Structure formats: C-alpha cells, structure tokens
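Lecture 7 notes. Example A: sequence first, then its structure tokens.
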Amino acid sequence: MSELTLISHALCPYVQRAAIVLAEKGVPFTRREVDLAHKPDWFIALSPLGKTPVLQVGDTAIFESAVICEYLDDTLLPALHPTDPLQRARHRAWMEFGSAMLNTIAGFYNAADAVQLQARRDELVRRWGQLEQALPANGPYFAGERFGMVDAVFGPVFRYFEVFEALGQGGFFDGLPKIQAWRNALARRPSVQQTVAADYPQRLTAFLRARPSELARQISGA
C-alpha cells in the first residue's frame, strides 16, 4: 500500500475513529496536525468540507471518517466488519447511531441554559439505554469477543464521559452494566488508548470551559 498520512485535529473524535482503525490494522502511518481555526490552503484543497480527518494514500486524499474506515477495511486485514451482509448492515447502523450520539454530546456541552442542558443529558441517558439492549450478554465488545468497527466508533464517544465525570457531570451509565463493561474494555484497548496525546483530558477540559454554555458555567470551579 502507498504511504498513509492521517491529517488530524487533536480533539476531533472522528480523527480518533480513523486512527483506531489504522492501529487495529497494524499499518504504519504518519499524523499531520492542522489548526481548524486557521485552515491552510493545502488543507482546504484536500478537504472540500474543511473537516478532519483526511487520509492521504500516496497522492490521493480521502475525506470523511466513515469513508476512510470503510476503505481501510476493504483493503487491509484484519477485517473489522462481520462477513455476514445482514450483520454488517446492522453494525453500520449502530455506527451511525454513534455519530448521532456525538451530535447530542455537542448539544450537551453547547447548551445555552440549564433547561437545554438537562434535555440533552436526558437524551444521552435515553440513547445509552437503547444501546444497552443491543449489546451481547457476554461482551466485552459490541459483537462479543471480537473487536470491530462499532467499537472503533464508540471508543472516542466514551472518552468524553471520562472528562465529564472528572468535572462532576456523572451518572450517565447508572443501571447499565453492559455499557459499563464495554466502556471499560474499550478504555483498556491499546488502539483506543494510543489515539490521543497524554494531555487530551486537559485540552478537552479547557475546550469545554471556554464554551459560552451552561456546562462551562457549572464546571467553572471544578
């Protein structure tokens, strides 16, 4: 395969998703960080939507994390999708569910007032409850013993909640034992651990505190 470069932003969960898949494939790649507040011309030329991640495969650029992950699974072993078409479609559906959860998380940390913050919290709790019903009884991963693409999607999702809890915003997983076990298994997975720098919690905390939001007001002293 051609040389791979993952164009990244330090806090982007979609970048983490692609980096986890690359790590699971065991393929060498280079990361190139970009400042999305001051996008250079070379990045805009590679990413028509102006977002990370972008995967450069030799001279060809692929944008959008879902497309990047599918390309990597099509071309590199081990496969992270099930071989059965119906199960593969089911997994892709839950991947989309994970992307929707990221949008709700953004709504949570951007909520303008306490009413909106509670509404987004309630929505997150409801979504975790839906996901609890989809998980196998034995685990530890979404499909049981085998790590797959859905796990790569949710590793970065759970990472937000580690920081939320450290800031006094806990209770999202109460009464959800399968979610708790899955979350803990992903936190121990080397591919998930290695996708962010050691100072990621501090950087995310600074980002959250800088938002003009109700959450920022509530955690200002945390």
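Example B, a different protein, same format:
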Amino acid sequence: MNQNSKLKIEISDSRYPKLLKELGRDAPKQLYYRGNWDENILENCLAVVGSRRMSSYGKQITEKLVSEIAGAGITIVSGFMYGIDAQAHKAALEAGGRTIAVMPCGIDLIHPDYQSELYQEILKNNGLVVSEYEGKFLPTLWTYPRRNRIVAGLSKAVMVVEAGEKSGSLITANFAKKLKRKIFVVPGPLTSSLAVGISQLIKEGAEVVTSAKDVLEFFGRELIRTTETRSLSADRDRVSDSSMEQRIIAELQKEPMEIDFLARNLGISASEIGRIISVMEIKGLIQGENGKYYVH
C-alpha cells in the first residue's frame, strides 16, 4: 500500500477501533487515514500529551520515557502539535517504535505544515496519520478539543508530561477519565506553571510515573534494555529513589539549594533530581521557594 494513499474507515467497518467506539454517540462516524492500517498498531496504544510550551525538562523526560515505552512495542498516540506531542512522535520513531498522529484538520493537510518531515517519517515507519475530517478542512478552535477525544479514545492509557492550568492536555485526560482509561502523569517542579495541571491530576487520582516501567507494567510488558535504549536515568541502576531522597535531605539540611547545585553535589543529572524532588514535595518532605529547596 502506498504510504501516501488516503483511505477511509466507517464506524460500521469491522476494522474500526473498538476502544474508539466506547465514545458512543461522540465516536467519529468515519476516520480518514494515511499509512498502513493494521490491528497490531491499535492493540496497545498509549496517548502522550503535554504542553506546547515544552520546557527543556519536558523535552528530556519525554525522550527518555517514550523511547523505552515505544521500544517495548507500545504504540504512541498524540496530536502532532509542536511541543510535547511532536517530541513524543519523534522519540517513538527514534526508538524504532510506531506512532499515530491525530490531526485537527482535513486528512489532506499537514498541520503545522513546518513539521512535514516528521509527518513523512511517521508514514515511512509504518505509522498512521488519522483525522475525522476529509480533504483540506482547516483546523479551527473547536477541532482541537474534538481531536483530543480521538487521542484518548484510541488509547488504553494517557500519559501527561507537562500541563498548565488550562492546558488542552487536561481535556484529553478528562475524556480518558470518562472512558475509564488509566491516567499517568510525570511530576514536574511545583514552582513551574507547567506543573499546575499535573498537580491537579494527581489530586484527582492520576498515577505518578517515576520510570517507564510503571507504564509498561500496566500494559503487561517488560523494559527492553539494549545499547540503543536509554533508561530514565543511568543513576537509578546505582542508587534507589529512597536513598537518594535521604541524600537530598542531608544536603538541604546544610542549606537551601537550587536543583543545579544539588545535581552537582550529588553527581546525577538535574532532570533526575527534579523528578525526585517533585515527588518529595508531594510527600511533604521538602519545600521550594524562589527556585531553592529546603527541608521542613
């Protein structure tokens, strides 16, 4: 099949995704698509969503988590927008995995158009591009949240990486909640505006992700470690989170510190320190103020 061929699947078709039908009356009556449609790509899907205003931490953590998850055979579904969406698609491809891009526009458009290279890479690597709209239907304010219901509907679980207070990612999470799908969140620094939505989801019962293993266990898969598969942090092989928490507390008892100073003193990456500190804040072990952290 030509990867650029345009096809359509009606809701009455036996190939129409069963999980998506659970949207009931809100399920799209048809899906237009490009790529190779097969049952395998739809069997175990994880939606990965987050802020368009992706931070360097969000970029790094998305790369590491998604590369391991996709490398274990889980299909990554996202909305193709710049930021976390695009980074999730890229990480899946770099890990040799498959990914599905759900568009807020007609199937004949690439939106945003400057991501045409990523679009073609998805198709070249047996991925899918789907939309409920035909032709060159332009994206509008209402098609973005409508698109999000498809992202959630195709997936057994949703992982939110970064989300502000009014992030579109929260719309996807709400659809997942209504469908009784699993919701995972990646903790971020509580001083960041991109962690506001994450904190809200945690309060509502979302599961905090500390490694790709948390997600893979849900899908009944094991982490595949190869020379090309990056772990969340090489430091985790040397020290457990609990002992690292103790070391962080010991450092902060000396004086309040910023994440970069802690990372330098403890000899591990700033992104890893940030992840552990976020969990420690949620536990109430430490507190942040003006970029510095201290023990209660």
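Note on Example B: Residues 226-239 have pLDDT under 50 and may be disordered. The chain has twelve helices and eleven strands.
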